[in-house]
Design goal:
Main location: membrane
Strand content: under 5%
Transmembrane segments: 12-39, 45-66, 78-100, 112-129, 150-173, 179-199, 225-245, 265-287, 294-311, 317-334, 354-382, 402-426
Number of domains: 2
Pfam family, one: MFS_1
Largest sheet: 2 strands, antiparallel
Subcellular location: Cell membrane
Number of helices: 19
Radius of gyration: 24 Å
Domain Major facilitator superfamily (MFS) profile: 1-432
Strand order of the largest sheet: 1-2
CATH architecture of the largest domain: Up-down Bundle
């Protein structure tokens, strides 16, 4: 954080953050391990492709449901629910592995394989509900001026989990096998759940709008919350478009790397380059995003586009590795900027659905591009680039080499990113979201003192020596409520009335 002195809310947030990091690492660990295990034992690209596609689709479709659950329940309770479902699912998978022969589980024509994969899938996907809840705890527990720093820490632990997971999953499958891998995942999930039971969040109170009675997938409520803030829908659309371009890198980054390195060396290079994710997250945690996160977001996207266009301009291994590292450094800034904006301009009672809505759009974007660009590159761009005519046409701009076709795709995608971000700065939506962000800023201490002096008559016992109620005042870690619409808070310990 920007200051060495942390509030009690920030200390609680760090506990929640570390707990979520362990839970995310565990679910990703088993999910990656399942993919490795299935491919190594069956050599079926179809099976691994279906598993990966199903994961992304469930994340996209489940995110809005998860957001509704987060808004209608205490955040700590949501995290406990997520951890419990994951523990039950992984335990069920472990029982199946113990009771059924491995040959039966790996029979793609039998239902047991698909049931086993679905159970692990459910346990991994439901973890996204905890990530949505984590984003809302930033609003509850961290002062507004340090939201960006907290979101930078979120990016750091996500980057660490990303790097560690890919390494540990491969080691676990290679050295221990699937059985012990499941056992490790069960144990770590239980540890995370036990630690979560020791946490208390006094600010964790559910407050819903008077007309907010939706259950299940509240698409209408999500849209209403997004459209209520000028420019917010455009921000989500821009982030989705950015992920569409990012799908180019998802589809072609590994093939390009494998043209330059052996498979073993590429794994090492990518792992080292991915440390940029941690460095970028720590930089945001230390320095923040500036006074205009939306401006920072667009500048970062332009730089990312320039990097994506140039890091394959020549077939030099150091240029590619260094470009990936710098690209990874910028990802946490882009993600933290979007989260910081939403945390300020959207009322806490609607944040879960807005985060879920954004996650649904953005999670579906990159796979769509990957599915589209991979066939185009395979059957048209790469054959042309490798032909004598194509290589001669590309040589003045992209040099020579076996991967100039992929470099051409990266170049075009990067230029599109830069142009789109630059044009976005000229739009009405950019001005609207900037104005909404500034207008939603909480008053500083001087403004609060002036307002109190004007509102409380002289001689009123509240004017001198008054003690503010818990959770109220400039030092409160809870977010200042900016939504003036009628709201209700439940009478049974802060929970919204109605069935759970």
């Amino acid at each position: 954080m920007t200051s060495m002195t942390r509030t009690q809310g920030e200390r609680t947030f760090l506990h929640v953050l570390i707990n979520t990091a362990l839970a995310n690492l565990t679910t990703s660990f088993l999910w990656f391990a399942l993919t490795f295990w299935v491919y190594l034992e069956t050599r079926s690209v179809l099976a691994t492709g279906i598993i990966g596609g199903a994961y992304m689709l469930l994340v996209a479709f489940g995110s809005m449901l998860f957001g509704t659950i987060v808004d209608h329940n205490r955040k700590l309770r949501v995290m406990l629910l997520s951890g419990t479902v994951t523990l039950v699912a992984f335990s069920a998978a472990g029982v199946m592995y113990l009771l059924l022969p491995e040959r039966t589980l790996l029979d793609l024509g039998a239902p047991w394989f698909w049931l086993f994969g679905t159970i692990v899938l459910v346990g991994a996907v439901v973890e996204q509900m905890r990530n949505i809840a984590l984003s809302t705890t930033v609003t509850m527990l961290v002062p507004d001026e340090r939201h960006a720093n907290a979101n930078g820490l979120v990016g750091t632990v996500q980057g660490l989990a990303f790097i560690v997971t890919s390494v540990l999953s491969g080691l676990a499958i290679g050295r221990l096998g699937m059985g012990w891998t499941i056992a490790i995942a069960i144990a770590l999930t239980a540890v995370s759940l036990a630690h979560l039971l020791t946490l208390r969040i006094p600010q964790d109170v559910v407050e819903l709008d008077a007309d907010d009675t939706a259950r299940g997938v509240d698409l209408r409520g999500s849209l209403r919350a997004v459209l209520a803030t000028g420019g917010l829908f455009a921000l989500i659309l821009f982030s989705t478009f950015n992920n569409l371009i990012g799908g180019l890198y998802m589809a072609l980054m590994d093939p390009y790397g494998l043209e330059l390195f052996t498979v073993e060396m590429w794994g090492v290079v990518f792992g080292v380059a991915s440390t940029g994710f941690i460095v970028g997250g720590l930089a945001i945690a230390r320095f923040g995003l500036g006074k205009r996160p939306i401006r920072t977001l667009l500048i970062v996207v332009m730089v990312m586009g320039a990097l994506g266009a140039l890091f394959t301009i020549r077939e030099w291994w150091w240029l590619y590795a260094g470009g990936i590292w710098l690209y990874m450094c910028l990802i946490p800034a882009a993600e933290a900027a979007e989260q910081t904006i939403i945390q300020r301009v959207v009322p806490l009672s609607r944040q879960g659905r807005v985060f879920g809505f954004a996650m649904a759009f953005e999670a579906a974007a990159a796979p769509v591009t990957a599915f589209l660009i991979a066939p185009l590159a395979e059957f048209w761009i790469l054959p042309w680039a490798r032909s004598s005519e194509g290589s001669a046409a590309l040589e003045p701009l992209l040099g020579t080499g076996v991967a100039r076709g992929i470099a051409l795709v990266f170049l075009i995608g990067g230029v599109v990113m830069v142009v789109a971000a630059a044009l976005a700065m000229l739009t009405k939506s950019y001005r609207q979201i900037s104005a909404s962000y500034d207008a939603a800023a909480p008053p500083d201490d001087a403004q609060l003192d002036d307002a109190s002096a004007a509102a409380v008559p002289t001689g009123d016992p509240r004017a001198v020596g008054a003690v503010p109620a818990e959770g109220v005042g400039p030092d409160a870690s809870a977010r200042t409520e900016r939504d003036q619409s009628p709201s209700r808070s439940s009478s049974d310990g802060g929970r919204a009335p109605g069935p759970r």
